[in-house]
Design goal:
The chain has 442 residues and is an alpha/beta fold. It folds into three domains: 133 residues, Response regulator (Rossmann fold, 3-Layer(aba) Sandwich); 76 residues, Signal transduction histidine kinase, dimerisation/phosphotransfer (DHp) domain (Helix Hairpins, Orthogonal Bundle), CATH 1.10.287.130; 186 residues, Histidine kinase-like ATPase, C-terminal domain (Heat Shock Protein 90), CATH 3.30.565.10. The protein is 44% helix and 15% strand. Strands 2-1-3-4-5 form a five-stranded parallel beta sheet, sandwiched between helices. Strands 7-9-10-12-11 form a five-stranded mixed beta sheet. Strands 6-8-13 form a three-stranded antiparallel beta sheet. Helix 2 packs parallel to helix 3 and helix 4 crosses helix 6. The protein is elongated and about 100 Å long. It starts with 10 loop residues before the first strand and ends with a strand.
Length: 442
């Protein structure tokens, strides 16, 4: 203990991203009355070093962000830290690592795991002026290596920043479109409610004067109800995506027949009742096993997929809904013909396919369509219709569908040859419920 007492009040900054390493060194050196300050990253270490001006810095080399070499080089350019001893404490012990650390600006090199008996004495020696050295030829050689490494890191970071900037621009565009579309979605039913309510007021007055009929009033009331219902759907979509993002969507698991759920979803968005001329075919749904799931959520899932298929399929097109049990031991050639190419299907379970003859989806957008607020068309041409060809929404239907499927432990994906504005390219959406959600028929 007497050998280290002369430096007992020294302040030491220890930079290491591993909390266990920091805890060990802290306990070891504070027992010798050193004042230890910890930092878990190179950037945090730089900030603390500027404020505290430590008398010695212990530097881990292998850290995310700024590594130990780069942090050391940066510290050497900061006034007040130019001559502060910086000691590499690292598990990197391969040939050339010590020389590279010294070339980057370190004054010493201690390997991990540290020797707890020797470590405090090594620290005091560095505090008293000890410096590790390398020859000028070695320094020049490793400085060249270090410079090349820095340029490569800089190139990688620039590429990352360019990609991040592209993503941010895309997100900013998506958010701007969402604000435009959300305003349109909300304004339309509110305008209708306001207009029909005013007409209802007039109609009530006319009835009182014997100038109108109750049928006219009923019609206005129904239109107000429809408008409020649409407004409620918009609000519920926003709430649902919020629940999905927070992983708080509640699922009421009960035995469910998928055929009944699919039929209910189709009835709710029946294209024949919405001025669309489309052929909808159901195949092989009768023999599907029950699954344990939330009937209401599953109906919403299929409603959203059907809405998407109807909106992007021109009149006189077709929609096929087909179900099968994946990877049956004796699958027929007919079933194999519909087996999706995605790796998800290898999990086994129950698959439902919704295949249309619509305009298709560009390969570059087949992942994006499941991102919230993403829309494959220009928001300037937005329409609130859920069934009109080319109609739109707020970019929440498929993300909500994905959230519901994943809450049931399943997967959803799309396959399409590409986009063709004239139609017939087609898209096939697959919903997989894994084998552990299935339930034998009673």
């Amino acid at each position: 203990m007497s050998q280290v007492s002369s430096k007992a009040t020294a302040t030491i900054l220890y930079i290491d991203d591993d909390p266990l390493n920091r805890s060990l060194v802290n306990r070891l050196l504070t027992s010798y009355n050193f004042n230890i300050i910890e930092a878990e990253s190179g950037l945090e270490g730089l900030q603390i070093a500027r404020q505290e001006t430590p008398e010695l810095i212990l530097m881990d080399i292998n850290m995310p962000g700024l590594d130990g070499h780069e942090t050391t080089t940066r510290m050497r350019s900061i006034s007040g830290l130019n001559d502060t001893p910086i000691i590499a404490v690292t598990a990197r012990t391969t040939k050339g690592e010590r020389e590279l650390a010294l070339a980057a600006g370190c004054d010493g090199y201690i390997t991990k795991p540290i020797d707890v008996d020797e470590f405090p004495h090594q620290i005091i020696a560095y505090l008293e002026g000890q410096k590790d050295t390398i020859s000028k030829d070695e320094q020049q050689h490793y400085l060249g290596q270090y410079s090349q490494k820095l340029v490569e890191r800089l190139e990688a970071k620039i590429l990352e920043l360019q990609e991040a900037n592209t993503r941010l621009q895309k997100i900013d565009k998506i958010k701007s479109d969402f604000v435009t579309v959300a305003a349109h979605e909300l304004r339309t039913p509110i305008t209708l409610v306001y207009g029909y309510a005013r007409l209802l007021q007039s109609a009530v007055g006319e009835i009182n004067r014997g100038e109108s009929t109750t049928d006219y009033v009923d019609d206005l009331a129904n239109k107000i109800y429809s408008s409020v219902h649409r407004l409620s759907e918009v609000v519920n979509d926003i709430l649902n995506i919020t629940l999905i993002e927070a992983d708080e969507m509640r699922i009421d698991h009960k035995p469910v027949h998928l055929k009944a759920v699919i039929n209910a979803a189709l009835k709710g968005i029946n294209p024949d009742e919405n001025n669309r001329v489309l052929s909808v075919t159901l195949e092989d749904l009768d023999d599907l096993p029950q699954i344990n799931g939330d009937r209401t959520r599953l109906q919403q899932l299929f409603w959203n997929i059907f809405s998407n298929a109807i909106k992007f399929t021109p009149d006189h097109g077709s929609i096929l809904v087909k179900g099968w049990t994946a990877h049956l031991p004796e699958a027929s050639s007919k079933q194999e013909a519909f087996t999706p190419t995605s790796a998800y299907a290898k999990q086994g379970g129950v698959v439902v396919m919704i295949k249309d003859t619509g305009i298709g989806i560009d390969p570059s957008e087949q992942k994006d369509i499941f991102e919230r607020f993403y829309m494959v068309k220009d928001s300037a041409y937005h329409t609130s219709s859920k069934t009109a060809f080319g109609g739109g929404g707020m970019g929440l239907g498929l993300p909500i569908a994905q959230g519901i499927v994943e809450a049931h432990g399943g997967r959803i994906w799309v396959e399409s040859a590409g986009r063709n504005a004239e139609g017939n390219s087609g898209s096939a959406f697959y919903v997989l419920f894994p084998a552990d959600t299935t339930k034998q028929q009673d």
